[in-house]
Amino acid sequence: MKKTLKTLVAMVALLLILVGMFPNAALAASNPGVTLNTSKNVITATNAVLYATISNPQGKKITDVGIQIVERSTGTVVKSHTEKCVSSAAKLKSVSMWFDLNKELGITLKPSTVYSYTMFAVIDGKKFTTSGTFQTLAKVSPIAPVKNVKTTSPFGWRPLNGKQDYHYGIDLIGDKTIMAIANGTVVAVGYEKTGGNFVAILHDDGYASCYFHLASYSVSKGSKVTQGQKIGVMGETGTGAQGVHLHLEIRSRWQGSLYGDGSWRNDCVNPTLYIKTLG
Known about the structure:
The protein has 279 residues and is mainly beta. The chain contains three helices and 20 strands. The protein has helices at residues 2-21, 23-28, 271-274; strands at residues 33-36, 42-43, 48-55, 62-71, 76-84, 94-100, 114-123, 126-135, 150-153, 156-160, 163-167, 170-173, 177-179, 184-192, 196-203, 208-217, 224-225, 230-234, 246-251, 268-269. The strands form four sheets. Strands 9, 12, 13, 14, 15, 16, 17, 18, 19 and 20 form a ten-stranded antiparallel sheet that branches. Strands 1, 2, 3 and 6 form a four-stranded antiparallel sheet that branches. The termini are far apart. The relative contact order is 0.13. Residues 1-29 have low confidence and may be disordered.
C-alpha cells in the first residue's frame, strides 16, 4: 500500500512538473480555436476540398465561418468567403468545416500551382484562424477508352424501361479493347452486381475513371498504367448491362472504393466534359 501511494504521489508530481513546463498544452483542450484537417483534403488539378475542425469547448455561439485562398507565387487573393454558421452547429463543442472551391465558391484553380489558405471561425465575437498550403495536381489530357467510339447513352436523366433514370456515366460502343484514358494507378478491380466486371483508375490530376460491364480485365489493383494501355475487353457482365458496351464513369475524386462513404456517386461528372474527344 505504501509503495502504491508513493508511486501515485510521484506520478502526480511529474504531472504537475509537465503542466508547469507546458501550460499551453494543458489548456489546449479547453480553449476554442480552428485546426486544419489536412488528411481529409481532396486536391485535383483544378479544385480543392479543404477541411478544418472548430473547437468550441464552452459551447459558445459560432456566428461566422470562412476561408481565404491566395496564389502563393503572385500573392493574388483568389477568393475571400464568409458565411453564417448553420444554427444546428452554432453551439456544438466540435464542428467540422469544409469548402469545395469549385462547387461552393465557384473557383477554378490553376494546375500545378501552390496556394495558401486561411480558414476561420468567429466564436462569441472573437475570430480564430488557421492557415496552410496545398499544390494542385498536374493537368492530364485523357483520350477515349475505345477506338471507333460511339456514345449510345448520355450522362444524366434518360428514359429506361419506361421510367426516367439518372445515368451516372455514359455508354460507349466501338472496338472491343478497353484502354486507360490517361496515366494512373489501378485502385480497384473486381465484380459488382449491377456493373459486372470493373476496373477503376486514379489519374495524376486526382480524377478517377471507372470501366464497367467488362468481359474481362487484364490489370490488378496497384498496377501502374499508361495512357492507351489495354486494361480489359468490352462485355455485358452485370445485371445493368443491356447488350455489349462500356459504361464509363468519371469521378472528381476517389473515395477509397466504388461505394466510398455511402454516397459514392455524388462525385460523378459528365465524361464528355473531362474527355474532350467524346464531346
